[in-house]
Design brief:
globular
């Protein structure tokens, strides 16, 4: 949700670093048709798409790349001569941290016995499945609180589905949490109990806070973990490059992201003044 996003801090720092005459603003929209009409009145060059619009935005696009077609969801749009062109940078945001954690070479695939479970059924879960497939994962299970929703997504993505209870019985190489549960300000919420964290690696796509209750539980269980902040930064860098055609200043974006999240933890708005 844009009220809780640090995207504007990260992207504005990127624009400043690259001396771009641009500004990134949070725009809360409940109606995409209304947003499309309003967008015609502003000098928009592009925008990010957040929960819950990553699938709904598809009907308003003029062009979408292969990642959008594969995931059935988009998170990034650029506007060229009035045409809305979309990509899905969430996929690379998920792929890259997995590659790094497993120390996979650029063309190396996941082992044949690698098993992954994706918890969730929205746009982020779709991106996670596509990311895993692109890395060669053959065994993917989609699990969720609502079994019918998990089954529907599994059919669409040609994956297996299971209720959350299966996490207590089966062991996975990787668990990807792709729901907003645990996101700031509800930082003490956690969808999964310790007994459900039977995975070698737990990857929480929630980035605010960077160390969620889920990740703390996973580490206590002996799991290796990946913070959603890694995913957020990679997808933001790819957004920057999609909009500008320039390499993203990732080091600068990482520094301001960490600062903004710390400010929020202390009660100050991201990018704002520290509380007195």
């Amino acid at each position: 949700p844009v009220r809780h996003s640090i995207g504007f801090v990260v992207h504005n720092a990127g624009f400043q670093s690259r001396r771009r005459d641009a500004v990134y603003l949070p725009l809360l929209s409940e109606d995409l048709a209304d947003f499309r009409r309003a967008a015609l009145r502003f000098p928009l060059a592009g925008f990010s798409v957040t929960i819950p619009h990553k699938q709904g935005i598809l009907r308003y696009l003029d062009k979408a790349d292969g990642w959008v077609a594969a995931a059935g969801a988009a998170n990034t749009v650029r506007i060229r001569r009035g045409r809305w062109e979309a990509t899905n940078t969430d996929i690379e945001g998920i792929r890259a941290p997995i590659r790094q954690r497993l120390q996979l070479a650029s063309r190396q695939r996941l082992p044949a016995d690698f098993r992954a479970v994706v918890v969730g059924n929205g746009g982020a879960a779709r991106a996670a499945v596509i990311a895993l497939r692109s890395l060669g994962c053959r065994a993917i299970v989609i699990a969720g609180r609502n079994p019918s929703h998990a089954q529907r997504l599994a059919r669409e993505m040609e994956a297996a589905s299971a209720p959350l209870e299966v996490l207590r019985r089966e062991r996975f190489s990787l668990l990807i949490h792709a729901t907003p549960v645990g996101m700031w300000p509800h930082v003490e919420q956690c969808l999964l109990q310790p007994g459900q964290l039977n995975a070698g690696i737990v990857f929480d796509l929630v980035y605010n806070p960077p160390q969620t209750k889920l990740l703390r539980r996973a580490r206590a269980r002996g799991c290796r973990t990946i913070s959603g902040l890694e995913m957020f930064l990679i997808q933001a860098a790819r957004q920057f490059e999609f909009w500008t055609g320039e390499p993203a200043p990732l080091r600068r974006m990482r520094a301001v992201a960490a600062q903004a999240l710390e400010q929020m933890r202390r009660g100050a708005p991201p990018g704002g003044e520290e509380p007195a």
